[in-house]
Amino acid sequence: MDGSVQSSHREVEGRVLVTDFNNVPEEDGVRVHRQASQCDSHGTHMAGVVSGSDSGVARGAGVHLVRVLNCQGKGTVSGALAGMEYIRAALLAGPVEAVVVLLPFVGGFSRSLNTACRDMVANGAVVIAAAGNYRDDACLYSPASEPEVITVGAVNSVDQLMSQGAGGTNFGRCVDLFAPGDDIVSASSDCSTCFTSRSGTSQAAAHAAGVAAVILSSNQNMSPVQVLQTMLRYSVSNTINFLSLTDAHRLVTPNLVAAMPPDNGTDVELLCRSVWSERSGVTSTDSAISRCRQGEEMMSCSSYAPDGVYAGETVTVNDGQMECVAYNGPGGKGVFAVARCCVVGGLQCKVHASPKPGQDAECVGLQHHLTGCTSWSTAEILSGSRPHHGDRKRCVVKDGVTSAAVCCHAPSLECHVLENTSADKDEVEVSCPSGWTLTDCSAVSKGSAILETVVKGNSCRVHSAAGADGATGVAVCCRVRPPEQQQQATTTPH
After folding, report:
1. Same domain for 388 and 245
2. Last residue of a domain, one of 228, 257, 286
3. Is the dihedral of CA 255, 259, 261, 267 positive or negative?
4. Range(s) of the domain holding residue 120
5. Both 42 and 177 in a single domain?
6. In which band, very low, low, confident or very high, does the pLDDT at 489 lie, cut at 50, 70 and 90?
């Protein structure tokens, strides 16, 4: 969805279908020169980034243009809604191959536009949106703020946040990943063989749309969230310097840059991501809620308080969907809820709460594996529940603490607990081995030290307050047993 496209450009010739949809506002001013090259500039560049024969990511992919931007690159919410309804009707009218809907524009927060995007994803389309170029929190804009959309920020040629004059790429928890968006060379509408460079999160979103198209070309039955998880799985991690961001934004912005997946990627790998809520209020009754996307299962739930003061977390079920709820502690300055959201074929999860405070919560049935533990107390949480695998798969708690066990089942799923103890350091890390995926990160201490845990990639990092006697990091690692091992005895990571 963009402005016009010069479909005769050598980069995209024969691959662009200009639909009969056209819903754009009048251009501002009385002396607007509507040269074709001006009207086509943004859309032509986008089409080249997605599928250009020389500059494209998914070279050879077909592009259908739904025009919602005028010659000045401006559109309206009503025009975008009409364009999305046009696409939805086209998808319902007849069977089509895998579809990626690229939204290389951004506006103020719009509940109606977000809802339309959510409905589009529910109909099976992968929807990818630009994060915006305001050097601001992407959650303040639409469609970037819609949780079901894949929202893309921009980095430069050395994988650092893109700057653009006084602006730059948006960031925050509503961004799913970043992609190249600075000084991107692609088709120019000045002539049918011209090229030009442009910058912005539109270019980054087009890059990500190309990656999504490549992923779908090898498996057209992938759901939108499987495409997202695959993109995250093969992204380059921890290359972006976030020092220019506030502490809160640095915490929740994903340090991931999109990359092309290998040709031999597997579709039976357990893929997980961490989903952060917005920060709660500061009263003792305030809470924060994090949810997974359609098609994901929540394998664990945790809470994070920057000042270390929180009352714990629990998993609730609302309209059939699990929710991770974190509670602010007395005198706390706000807490985040962090859901661990995962996909693999046949995955199903449910939650079992402890009968009463001080009693363990446990999984029932041989087929279900303990993948996460939650802890909640009316007093401040100092050390949470501890996952324990064995004859009884349970969450071990201290007196006065209420726990919940997240129990999951999938064909050939296996899970194990790994621990790492540090006697004298205030930080400890425990990582899942290659082939295993982290589903839960928790910590225990000998005394009453305040512990903070956070997931970084496939590792569980624990930070304890100064003067602590040491801390133990506890990670639950799961995988789908490889086919060649499914007839053999279970192996344990170490």
Report:
1. no
2. 257
3. positive
4. 16-257
5. yes
6. very low
Identified catalytic residue from 2, 182, 190, 440: 2
Mode of pairing for the β-strands spanning 336-343 and 297-304? antiparallel
* Marked catalytic residue, from 51, 202, 303, 403: 202
How many independent structural domains does the chain possess?
Answer: 2
Q: Which of 11-25, 118-132, 429-443, 448-462 has the lowest mean pLDDT?
A: 448-462
Q: Is 51 a catalytic residue?
A: no
Task: Give the span between the Cα atoms of 412 and 482, in whole angstroms.
Answer: 8
For residue 2, indicate whether it is catalytic: yes
SS3 labels along 326-340:
EEECCCCCCCEEEEE
Are 251 and 306 within one domain?
no
Q: Are residues 291 and 156 in the same domain?
A: no
Secondary structure (3-state) at 118? helix
- Which of 9, 40, 41, 42 is the catalytic position? 42
**Can you give the CATH number for the domain in which 96 is found?**
3.40.50.200
Which pLDDT tens digit goes with each residue over 228-262? 999 999 999 999 999 999 999 999 999 999 999 98
Active site residue 42: yes
Residue 218 has pLDDT above 60, yes or no: yes
Q: Check whether residue 228 and residue 320 sit in a common domain.
A: no
Residue 388 pLDDT more than 80?
A: no
Say what the pLDDT of residue 445 is: 75
